[in-house]
């Protein structure tokens, strides 16, 4: 069996974003993964109990997912409501799904307070990005899962190919012994 990966549901065209939209990614690599049955869709914000649509949310001060997980910073909606617990629950649900499926790679939506792997919004609701990871991206990385954005599909594909080779070698070795 080929290695599977988590992919943000919005990248798959699912209308799960805060505004009821998606961020469909039509890249050929993602299309191939779908054909191969490798993709496990996840939307941590829905898994955490947030509705669609919902007010936009950002990590206060652009501090990053590690600070949210440590309880030092909140994820807040543009109306000021603290939704940190939902973001943490969603991250935990994504990690549980990854563990259940033995997933080692995730491709998540860049810029999201959940899924951003290299950048998130700065917490001012002005559209400005800062370096940092979202809550789910941070938790998955802590568990040893490679987290990449939709802008790094070729790199994710190479990681999957390497995992497939390791698995194939292990199966051959087990069959030979």
Any descriptors?
single chain, alpha/beta, 177 residues, two-stranded antiparallel sheet, 6 helices
Q: Please, could you describe this protein's structure?
A:
- By secondary structure, the chain is of the alpha/beta class.
- The protein has one domain (5-176).
- Helix content is 37%, strand content 16%.
- It contains six helices and eight strands; from the N terminus they run βαβαβαβαβββαβα.
- The longest helix is centred in the last third of the chain and has 24 residues, at 153-176.
- The two termini are 20 Å apart.
- 42% of the residues are buried.
Structural class: alpha/beta
The coarse silhouette is globular
Radius of gyration of CA atoms, rounded to a whole number:
17 Å
In N-to-C order, the SSE pattern is: EHEHEHEHEEEHEH
- Helix-residue proportion: 25-40%
Report the total helices.
Answer: 6
First and last CA, distance: 20 Å
Number of domains: 1
Count of strand segments: 8
Largest beta sheet: strand ordering: 2-1-5-8
Oligomer: single chain
Main sheet attributes: strand count, strand direction, barrel closure = 4 strands, parallel
The pLDDT mean sits at 96
Low-confidence stretches: none
- Proportion of beta-strand residues: 15-25%
Topology (elements, then pairings):
Elements: E1 5-8, H1 28-35, E2 39-42, H2 44-47, E3 57-59, H3 65-69, E4 75-77, H4 84-100, E5 105-108, E6 119-121, E7 129-131, H5 135-142, E8 146-149, H6 153-176
Parallel strand pairs: 1-2, 1-5, 5-8
Antiparallel strand pairs: 3-4, 6-7
Helix pairs in contact: 4-5
């Amino acid at each position: 069996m080929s290695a599977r990966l988590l992919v943000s549901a919005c990248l798959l065209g699912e209308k799960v974003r805060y505004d009821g939209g998606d961020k469909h990614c039509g890249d050929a690599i993602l299309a191939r993964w779908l054909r191969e049955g490798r993709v496990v869709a996840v939307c941590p914000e829905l898994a955490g109990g947030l509705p669609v649509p919902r007010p936009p949310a950002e990590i206060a001060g652009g501090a990053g997912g590690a600070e949210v997980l440590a309880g030092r910073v909140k994820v807040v909606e543009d109306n000021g409501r603290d939704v940190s617990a939902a973001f943490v629950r969603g991250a935990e649900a994504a990690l549980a799904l990854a563990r259940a499926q033995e997933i080692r790679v995730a491709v998540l939506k860049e810029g999201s307070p959940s899924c951003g792997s290299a950048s998130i919004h700065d917490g001012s609701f002005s559209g400005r990005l800062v370096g940092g990871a979202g809550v789910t991206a941070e938790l998955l990385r802590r568990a040893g899962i490679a987290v990449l954005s939709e802008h790094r599909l070729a790199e994710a594909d190479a990681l999957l190919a390497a995992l497939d080779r390791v698995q194939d070698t292990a199966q051959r070795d087990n069959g030979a012994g």
